[in-house]
Design a protein that fits this description.
The complex is a heterotrimer.
Chain A lengths: L30 H5 L13 E7 L5 E7 L5 E3 L31 E2 L5 E7 L2 H9 L2 E6 L6 H4 L15 E8 L3 H6 L3 E9 L2 E2 L7 E7 L4 E6 L4 H12 L6 E4 L15 H13 L3 E4 L2 H7 L2 E2 L2 E9 L5 E13 L10 H9 L9 E9 L13 H19 L3 H8 L6 E2 L5 E2 L4 H12 L1 H13 L3 E13 L3 H7 L8 E7 L5 E5 L8 H13 L6 E4 L17 H28 L6 E4 L2 E4 L5 E3 H10 L13 E6 L4 E14 L4 E12 L6 H20 L30 E6 L16 H17 L9 E2 L3 H14 L1
Parallel strand pairs in A: 1-13, 8-31, 11-12, 16-17, 22-23, 29-30
Antiparallel strand pairs in A: 1-5, 2-4, 2-6, 3-5, 7-17, 8-15, 9-14, 10-11, 10-13, 15-16, 18-19, 20-28, 21-22, 21-27, 24-25, 25-26, 28-29
Chain B lengths: L6 E3 L4 H11 L4 E4 L5 H6 L7 E4 L9 E3 L3 E5 L15 H10 L5 H6 L2 H7 L5 H8 L3 E6 L2 E6 L17 E8 L6 E7 L9 E10 L2 E10 L6 E2 L1 H7 L6 H14 L10 H19 L1
Parallel strand pairs in B: 1-3, 2-3
Antiparallel strand pairs in B: 4-5, 5-8, 6-7, 6-8, 9-10, 10-11, 11-12
Helix pairs in contact in B: 5-6, 7-8, 8-9
Chain C lengths: L4 E7 L2 E7 L5 H8 L18 E4 L2 E4 L12 E3 L12 H8 L9 H14 L5 H8 L10 H15 L1
Parallel strand pairs in C: 1-5
Antiparallel strand pairs in C: 1-2, 3-4, 3-5
Helix pairs in contact in C: 2-5, 3-5
The chains are: A alpha+beta, B alpha+beta, C alpha+beta.
């Protein structure tokens, strides 16, 4: 689909740095190895030892004894004396710090909690032995539902967490009560978002090797945050970071699940140091489903006060987030409820807000961020509110959004977020036009007459991206990530290496950052290698998550590349005897504008190392520059439209079409950008219709295979039509905004709104994710009975 | 998720196979045919057979033959063999229509028709076919061969009347009258998933009236079976939407529904009603 | 029960003489005993398809076969798709159409698509979509995988 605004002008770099690469669908530099099956994933490396974790079969209980088979190498918490617990910290919101032991001590708190680790010379043998480990656990009453955990009679999951409320956030604006009382209509809904598992195709895993000569351990692991992993492991085990190297090799998807610290990785490093040998663990799919982090298990009660013009004047929300049995590192389990609270008002202009957000611990697997974190849930919730309000006011769902979307920028949200220049309304109008609503309504009418039920649903949202440390600091996390550093080095052969602290795993950063550098330095992307993932080779960084890497690492890349450019131009100016402003860098050459006096950039690089004396102290030897970037954050936006068909006899929902109009600022590589949107939408459709981690009341997990937890296949995802706007971000030095999470954020809301539109003749509404066939049929059946 | 250790036996003849099976079955020994159902169960260690009798190298077990009256399907015939009709008879087309619904292409390369029957998953499409068309299953052991009617074969979830030392060596399906109409419909959450309800219907129209109606339902009860109450709604009546609806409703009422944490009896009946009616609509 | 059997796996035309337990899956044997790590393991229970390889011309899930069952059979994995430097049209198409992001499911899709298209070059588009629904991908949302396979199918029919 086409661009609808003129390509952004070249606003950065000196004269002559043309935008030859940025904005083009350059093929990915990552791909040649991957399509040949030459990617290096964690499970590829052989090891002396393989481990298997013995996991609690019960959700809650007192662990009294662990019996290991004779001769087997089995370690338990008793062996880990002196090792700290994983204790992320939040200094606000009444957060109660809790620590997770690497291996359970005297209490088990969720099915799947690691209790012991078996070490053997093969994975199969470790599994055989782990079956023979006997656990003596006195089961106690478990609680798996967050609302039930709040009841006075509920068992306590942690002694330190009274009432099972681990944190609480509260907001109330001064004029709230008055505005509420003045409402023309109050619209209420109870939204239920059910537990998700990010389900990357590569489960987690690690390989820790020990180097006798230095005493160092190298941990190769499937992670999104190698540096933070290193910091955390050394902190827990108590040894200097320089003795640990962490490498994120090729990583088979993360989606947030791999940016929280896996205690299992810490155990691997401990074992490598103890055994002075290589030790590996590959998580299996069942383990990933039951014990890798879960997300989005939330109840939100939302009420909106509207004036008689259907303008939203106040929002009241009660958010309950089921955070599971422990608290994820580094964000803490506060990330879901607090983000929900801070961002619930979404793209709408509303300045009165009351919210209570609670994180509730239960005997279930620990929660950690999953692509979009709470944004898919709050978007679904407020978009349902808008559609319900539209019905109550008898106006079109698009019309109510027109009346309420923010359209003056910068806009300060009621929770203090600054929305920068964006196109909330324009994107919606673009989507509405492209989908041709009147045409659809006719088709819907004809279909209804023939007993078929089509529906159309919209969602509009803004996506907070590329936010640096000030934003994280506001959350009160003890560890405040946010900035990124990039070191751009040109070697004497003229080849460029950019070493970054981000940790991409599919986002194509090796290509997009190369494009940015290519434009700045006048080289082809093939001359640029982006190095990431290895703590020995890269500057400290926070990893890749939260739609941040292109904005923040991209920004740092641009800053560093500009510095390199300045030096190259200085050298060129000496060698070409011209002013730096008169020199262009393009196609591997430095050229004096308007002449044919040229010199290869590779030669400039060589001179920087070998002939430094010629530059009279104007440059430092070598050619390496560092860029730091710590931006405030920038909001991208989109409008999603879903057309569905609901089979009212079976409750099955088919998504017939999906359309997006999105604005993510300047697009560095449109092919990669679109790919991010596609992938997010597929996960969003899965969220809306299929995916659900289910626990019974005893905390037993019922969805422990891919036959039970249902990520979508190609059949469930329709053709996705994308339309683009590019509003260059003034909060991002590359003018790019992030967009990695947008698909997951907007899609569930659009699909659920579409289902409700399809079902409107039946007088039933569904406010639940996923809207399974059973749930839809149950609603319809209840209505049939009542009629 | 590695399977527990086992001893693998690779007989070269059928006689050898049943001899080995007789020895190892009491020691938790099982047949390995396609493995597409057995191996996942072993990966989860829900089954830990100490012995596997791998029948994949026995010559002659992989044939589909017909003598004009009966289609005989050998133990090793893969699902993919039915991608194209195997016989010039409505049965051939019926099997091809059904085969497309079984799991996914790569699974169909390995999984076997008979293996599916012996595994007796309530959602199995071939089990539904066998039950609806009154197949005859032939079991072989060291004690000889015996024929089991389909209605006597399925004994509940993952359970058949095969003795532990018996190998299901072939399935026999009667060819159907040339003017037989058939329809098949199943409900799944996603493409290729286990059927939550499935229906196979066949009938003839004689003198404007339906005769010899067979309505089979699978995935909805512990075992697939014909629903006589629903068939009675069809036989003797003119084919048409109204009678299809009645038959479907009757089937929904007649079943003893499987329930689980997501699917209750009401929903299962909803599905049976839908798949029976849709299978009938398809048959026209 | 460590009764290992000597078998030969012929992978991409090369023989690998290995000794494996009967329970060793073909996927594990290909990866660990034969060192061909391009075939990935995503679930080990036959659902995700990441482990798809071609055995005697048939695309199959290598986590659902035991290595001993593949003795003396012709096995093709992703490492054997390219002809030296020259990529297979399927690989080229995946690159041209951005049909991969993290790359973990990619070998499985490549072998599935190549395996089916070699058997059925004139497969209908609807049937092709059915086939592509066999494997799971979490990154791409399938859009570009479908584009890539369609483009490669055209190339392969030439």
């Amino acid at each position: 689909m086409g661009r609808t605004t003129a390509p952004p002008k070249s606003e950065h770099g000196t004269r002559g740095s043309g935008m030859a690469w940025v904005g083009r669908a350059v093929r990915r530099l990552e791909d040649p190895a991957l399509v040949r099956g030459q990617g290096h994933f964690t499970a590829n490396a052989p090891a002396a030892y393989w481990v298997r974790f013995v996991r609690s079969p019960v959700a809650a209980g007192q662990l009294s004894k662990i019996g290991a088979p004779a001769g087997a190498m089995v370690f338990t918490a008793d062996d880990l004396k002196g090792v700290k617990k994983i204790t992320p910290m939040l200094h606000k919101f009444s957060y109660r710090p809790i620590g997770q032991p690497l291996l359970a001590e005297s209490v088990v708190r969720f099915v799947g909690e690691p209790v012991a680790v078996v070490v053997a010379t093969s994975a199969a043998e470790a599994e055989d032995l782990s079956e023979q480990v006997e656990l003596s656990i006195d089961e106690t009453r478990a609680i798996s539902d967050a609302r039930m955990a709040l009841e006075a009679s509920a068992p306590s999951v942690h002694v330190e967490v009274p009432g099972n409320v681990i944190l609480e956030g509260k907001v109330k604006t001064p004029g709230f009560d008055e505005t509420w009382a003045d409402a023309d209509k109050i619209i209420k809904l109870e939204a239920r978002s059910r537990r998700q598992n990010a389900t990357p195709m590569e489960p987690r895993g690690g390989h820790a090797s020990y180097e006798a000569s230095s005493g160092r351990v190298t941990l190769t692991c499937s992670t999104q945050m190698p540096h933070l992993t290193r910091t955390a492991i050394c902190d827990v085990l108590g040894f200097p970071e320089s003795d640990l190297r962490v490498i994120a090799p090729d990583v088979g998807g993360g989606f947030g699940q791999k940016m929280s610290l896996a205690g299992e990785y810490v155990v691997l490093v401990w074992l490598a140091r103890k055994l002075k040998a290589s030790v590996a663990w590959t998580e299996d799919r069942r383990e990933n489903l039951i014990a890798a982090f879960h997300s989005r298990d939330q109840y939100i009660t939302l009420e909106g006060a509207f004036d008689r013009n259907a303008r939203l004047t106040a929002l009241k929300a009660d958010i309950i987030a089921n955070v599971g049995a422990y608290s994820c590192f580094p964000t803490t389990c506060g990330v879901e409820p607090l983000m929900a609270m801070a961002e619930l008002p979404g793209p709408y202009d509303v300045q009165q807000y009351q919210c209570l957000a609670r994180g509730v611990v239960t005997n279930t697997c620990t929660m950690a961020p999953y692509r979009g974190v709470s944004r898919p849930v709050i978007t679904f919730t407020i978009e349902r509110l808008m559609d319900k309000a539209a019905r109550a006011f008898r106006i079109d769902p698009i019309d109510i959004r027109r009346r309420n979307l923010v359209d003056q920028f910068p806009y300060k949200s009621v929770t203090g977020l600054e929305y920068d220049e964006a196109t909330y309304k324009e994107a919606m109008e673009m989507a509405v036009k492209a989908i041709d609503v009147p045409s659809f309504r006719k088709r819907q009418k004809d279909a209804r007459a023939a007993g078929r039920h089509l529906g159309i649903g919209f969602s509009t949202f803004c996506e907070r991206t590329g936010y640096g440390s000030p934003a994280f600091a506001a959350r009160g996390m003890e560890i405040t990530p946010g900035w990124e550093t990039v070191i751009v080095t040109v070697d004497p052969s003229g080849f460029v290496e950019a070493r970054i602290g981000s940790s991409p795993h599919g986002q194509g950063l090796r290509t997009t950052l190369a494009q940015i550098i290519a434009d700045e330095l006048g080289l082809a992307p093939e001359m640029i290698r982006v190095v990431h993932g290895d703590t020995d080779r890269t500057p400290y960084g926070w990893g890749t998550f939260a739609a941040r890497s292109l904005v923040i690492s991209g920004g740092a890349t641009l800053i560093a590349a500009r510095k390199v450019r300045v030096t190259l131009l200085k050298i060129a100016s000496h060698l070409l005897e011209a002013a730096p402003d008169d020199i262009l860098l393009a196609d591997g050459m430095a050229k004096v504008a308007g002449t044919d006096r040229t010199i290869p950039i590779a030669m400039l690089a060589r001179e920087a190392y070998m002939q430094t004396h010629r530059f009279k102290g104007e440059i430092e030897p070598g050619l390496s520059e560092t860029g730091h970037y710590d931006p405030p954050g920038t909001f991208s936006n989109a409008c999603h439209v879903a057309i569905v068909e609901v089979d009212v006899e079976t409750g099955h929902v088919r998504v017939e079409k999906f359309l997006v109009a999105e604005d993510a600022g300047r697009i560095i590589n449109p092919m990669i950008a679109d790919g991010q949107v596609h992938g997010g939408i597929a996960q969003g459709i899965g969220n809306a219709l299929l995916e659900e981690i289910i626990y019974d009341d005893n905390g037993s997990i019922l969805t422990a295979s891919l036959a039970d937890y249902l990520p979508p296949t190609a059949h469930e995802i329709p053709e996705i039509e994308l339309h683009h706007i590019e509003t260059p971000s003034q909060n991002s030095i590359t003018r790019a905004k992030g967009l990695g999470e947008g698909g997951t954020i907007g899609a569930p809301a659009a699909v659920i709104n579409a289902i409700n539109d399809a079902l409107s003749p039946f007088g039933v509404e569904i406010d639940e994710l996923p809207a399974t066939p059973q749930r839809i049929r149950a609603l319809l059946r209840a209505k049939e009975k009542a009629v | 998720m590695k399977p527990a250790p086992f001893v693998r036996h690779v007989p070269k003849t059928l006689d050898e196979a049943v001899k080995i099976l007789a020895e190892v079955a009491p020691k938790d020994g099982r047949i390995l045919a396609g493995g597409q159902s057995l191996v996942p169960i072993m990966a989860f260690r829900l089954a830990k057979p100490a012995h596997l009798v791998d029948i994949n190298e026995i010559a002659g077990l992989d044939t589909v033959s017909n003598d004009g009256k009966t289609l005989t399907i050998g133990a090793r015939v893969r699902h993919a063999a039915f991608h194209k009709p195997v016989v010039d008879n409505p049965l051939g087309q019926l099997l091809t229509v059904v085969a497309r619904h079984i799991a996914h292409y790569p699974i169909r390369m390995r999984g076997t028709f008979c293996g599916s029957l012996a595994h007796a998953d309530p959602a199995s499409e071939w089990c539904l076919v066998a039950a609806t068309l009154d197949a005859t299953l032939v079991a072989k052991s060291t004690r000889g061969a015996r024929e089991i009617a389909a209605k006597d074969f399925f004994a509940g979830i993952m359970s058949t009347t095969l003795a532990e030392d018996e190998l299901l060596v072939e399935a026999r399906l009667p060819l159907v009258a040339k003017d037989t109409k058939f329809g098949f419909n199943e409900f799944t959450r996603r493409a290729g998933d286990f059927a939550m309800a499935a229906s196979l219907v066949t009938y003839r129209v004689q003198g404007g009236r339906i005769a010899d109606a067979r309505i089979g339902v699978g995935g909805a009860e512990a075992s697939p079976r014909r629903i006589p109450e629903a068939e009675a709604c069809l036989n003797g009546n003119a084919s048409g939407k109204a009678v299809f609806v009645t038959a479907a409703e009757s089937a929904a009422k007649a079943i003893d529904p499987l329930e689980d944490h997501q699917t209750d009896a009401h929903y299962r009946r909803d599905l049976v009603r839908a798949v029976v009616r849709r299978a009938l609509e398809q048959s026209v | 029960m460590n009764n290992k059997t000597n078998i030969t796996l012929t992978i991409n035309g090369r023989d690998h003489a290995i000794a494996v337990e009967p329970r060793r899956t073909l996927a594990d044997a290909i990866r660990e005993d034969c060192g061909q790590t391009g075939t990935h393991i995503g679930c080990e229970h036959g659902i995700c398809g990441a482990c798809t390889v071609i055995v005697d011309g048939e695309p199959v899930r290598s986590c659902l076969m035991f290595a001993v069952q593949a003795d003396r059979k012709k096995i093709r994995t992703v490492e054997g798709l390219a002809d030296g430097e020259k990529l297979h049209p399927m690989q080229q198409a995946f690159m041209d159409h951005h049909g991969l992001q993290c790359g973990f499911c990619t070998p499985g899709f490549l072998m599935l698509a190549v395996g089916v298209l070699e058997r059925e070059p004139d497969i209908s588009d609807g049937d092709l979509l059915d086939v592509l629904s066999s494997n799971l991908c979490r990154c791409t949302g399938y859009q570009n995988i479908i584009k890539a396979v369609r483009a490669a199918a055209k190339e392969m029919r030439k």
